[in-house]
Each structure stands twice: as C-alpha cells, then as structure tokens.
Amino acid sequence: MRSSTPASPLPPAADPRPRVRSESLFRNGNSEVLIEHGDQCYRLRLTRQGKLLLHK
C-alpha cells in the first residue's frame, strides 16, 4: 500500500500567481467590493466574522 504525500505549496517568491491582501480591498470601512469578470459582476463581501463571501 502506497501512502500519498500532498504536494507542498510553492514558496511565495516562486509562485507566479498575483497575490492581493484582502485588507487592501476593504479599506476605508468598505465591506463589499465589486469584481467585473467579462460581462458579469460579482460581489465580494467581508462578513462581521472576517470571512469572505463571493456572490454573483
């Protein structure tokens, strides 16, 4: 029986994906951000518990 080892994540410097801190999106007391993707608009909301919700 073979044990599977999960792949370790790339270190931040080697990860080519852009990284955005959520604090930079929700400044000035805003708790919601609108994200345009193609012809759709999504709402990213910060809850009172500090969680993120994405709505179409």
Explain this structure to me?
The model has no long low-confidence stretch (mean pLDDT 88). This protein has a domain of 25 residues. Helices cover 7% and strands 30% of the residues. It has 56 residues and is mainly beta. It has a three-stranded antiparallel sheet, with no helix packed on it.
Relevant terms:
3 strands; 56 residues; mainly beta; three-stranded antiparallel sheet; 1 helix
Question: Which percent range fits the helix content?
Answer: under 10%
Number of strands: 3
Cα gyration radius (Å): 17 Å
Q: Give the rounded overall mean pLDDT.
A: 88
**Main sheet strand line-up:** 1-2-3
Beta content comes to 25-35%
Helical run tally: 1
Which class best fits the helix and strand makeup? mainly beta
Q: In angstroms, what separates the terminal alpha carbons?
A: 44 Å
Query: How does the overall form come out from the CA principal axes?
Result: elongated
Poorly predicted sequence stretches spanning 5 or more consecutive residues: none
The helix/strand order is HEEE
The largest sheet is:
3 strands, antiparallel
Summarize the structure.
This protein has one helix spanning 22-25; strands at 32-37, 40-46, 52-55. The protein has 56 residues and is mainly beta.
